[in-house]
């Protein structure tokens, strides 16, 4: 009986392993030709301040494959990272985002801040700084309108090297944002050492802000840390007016989430900015109180 059960569980285990393995290989195979087949594109999610003013966008990568459909980034970015494809894809993200932001600037006669997610592999590439400079210069965008989003997972790498690169990037006028803050490895002494301009409160805390006292405390602490270290604090994943109200009462500086807008295709972004502020669900309710 015992050996049968073992055999059975082994069988299940190897099945799911194989499935994961095949999926990964299949994803990787398709991902290798995604760029040349023009399957990758950027979408842009608005970021707003406490006045409801549009202050910038976060650029987010999308992959639409004929066979696989729309593959979410949390599935294909790890594959891109482990297969080495992320370097090329990361350069595509920078180039496409900055080109489109420059185009937007031409269309609308002014410009906004753009936040770009940088993966660990991309950041650790020895040519990262040089390529970043080249791509921004070629785009015609100003370095001061660019924010790089890094994550705490970067800090498992050589901290002295990271500090050196971050300082060089920062000296160019580029802003640095700590994405998904509160979920990872950073210590307060590390935060103080690094040239960070913004903390992004992870969505998981915002999700439960209304009903979980621990999440609420965590958010208040993150905002206090940001204020003490002269960083601005942005909350991601804001979906309701009630979440916004609580974040505002804690003096959070900026907001991003479905409550304001889902990530938008580039073609729709200009129109949305021109009509900003949009009438948001719940605004009528708020003004009658
Ligand atoms: P992230 O950088 O933390 O981005 C925020 C994610 O939350 C995005 O998911 C966004 O669409 C989603 N989001 C924003 N507001 C809301 C909301 O109110 N409700 C809900 N349910 N979701 C919301 P997305 O686009 O699927 O990206 C997932 C992650 O993939 C990103 O998390 C980022 O870590 C990574 N990623 C996306 N684009 C890139 C990229 O160009 N380069 C790199 N290296 N990573 C990227
Ligand atoms: Mg991000
Ligand atoms: Mg984030
Ligand atoms: Mg997040």
TrEMBL record:
Residues 24-277 form the EAL domain. Signal peptide: none annotated. This is Diguanylate cyclase (GGDEF) domain-containing protein. It comes from Desulfopila aestuarii DSM 18488.
């Amino acid at each position: 009986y015992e050996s049968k059960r073992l055999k059975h569980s082994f069988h299940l285990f190897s099945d799911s392993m194989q499935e994961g393995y095949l999926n990964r290989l299949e994803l990787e195979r398709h991902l290798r030709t995604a760029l040349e087949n023009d399957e990758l594109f950027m979408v842009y999610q608005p970021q707003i301040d406490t006045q409801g003013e549009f202050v910038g966008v976060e650029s987010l990568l999308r992959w639409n494959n004929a066979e696989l459909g729309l593959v979410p980034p949390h599935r294909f970015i790890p594959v891109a990272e482990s297969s080495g494809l992320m370097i090329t894809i990361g350069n595509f993200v920078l180039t496409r985002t900055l080109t489109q932001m420059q185009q937007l600037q031409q269309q609308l006669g002014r410009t906004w801040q753009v936040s770009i997610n940088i993966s660990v592999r991309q950041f650790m590439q020895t040519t990262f700084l040089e390529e970043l400079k080249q791509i921004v210069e070629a785009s015609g965008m100003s370095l001061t309108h660019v924010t790089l989003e890094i994550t705490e997972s970067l800090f498992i790498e050589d901290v002295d090297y990271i500090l050196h690169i971050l300082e060089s990037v920062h000296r160019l006028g580029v802003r640095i944002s700590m994405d998904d803050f509160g979920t990872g490895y950073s210590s307060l002494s590390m935060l103080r050492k690094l040239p960070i301009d913004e903390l992004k409160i992870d969505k998981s805390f915002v999700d439960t802000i209304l009903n979980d006292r621990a999440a609420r405390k965590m958010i208040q602490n993150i905002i206090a840390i940001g204020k003490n270290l002269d960083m601005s604090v942005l909350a991601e994943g804001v979906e309701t007016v009630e979440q916004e109200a609580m974040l505002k009462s804690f003096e959070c500086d900026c907001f991003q989430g479905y409550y304001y807008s889902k990530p938008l295709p580039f073609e729709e972004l200009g129109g949305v900015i021109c009509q900003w502020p949009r009438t948001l669900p719940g605004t009528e309710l708020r003004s009658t109180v």
